[in-house]
Amino acid sequence: MTLIPYLTSIAQHFTEAREKAVLPKNLVLYCGRHDFGTVITALTGNLKAVMKVMGHRDVKTAMRYQHPEVDIVRVALNPPQGSSASKTGA
After folding, report:
1. pLDDT at 20 over 70
2. Is 83 inside a domain boundary?
3. Alpha helix locations (H) across 21-88?
4. Domains in the chain: how many in total?
5. Is residue 89 part of a domain?
6. Are 17 and 32 in contact (CB under 8 A)?
7. 34 vs 41: CA distance, rounded Å
8. Per residue in 26-50, pLDDT tens?
């Protein structure tokens, strides 16, 4: 397997910085990639653009970056009293 030098270098720098900061070993470079995909999906809502930027061919892979905001889900499940959603049951 041929390694791409700049990727190896980035991974090494990340590992060194993580150790220096005394962060857990399960914090890996992939966490940053996933966070990037999640933020871009939340900001744009455009899965096709996320697929292109992240290099995914299958929409199911890009859908991993869709994380419903907990507050939005909480309000949807428990609408404030007197709101139209609480009256209609929606």
Report:
1. yes
2. no
3. 29-44, 47-54, 59-62, 70-77, 84-88
4. 1
5. no
6. no
7. 11
8. 988 887 888 888 888 888 889 899 8
Reduced to 3 states (helix: H, G, I; strand: E, B; else coil), residue 72 is helix
Based on the number of CB atoms within 10 Å of its own CB, is 28 exposed (0-12), middle (13-18) or buried (19 or more)? middle
For the residues 11-35, what does the mean pLDDT come to?
89
Give the number of C-alpha atoms closer than 13 A to the C-alpha of residue 42, restricted to the C-beta side.
12
pLDDT in tens, 49-59: 988 988 989 98
Answer whether residue 23 is part of any domain. Answer: yes
Query: Does residue 30 or residue 23 have the better pLDDT?
Result: 23
pLDDT in tens, 77-88: 887 777 665 555
Question: Looking at the chain, how many residues does it have?
Answer: 90
In a domain, residue 9? The reply is yes
Domain range enclosing 65: 5-78
* Residue 87 Rama label (left phi>0; alpha psi -120 to 50; beta): alpha
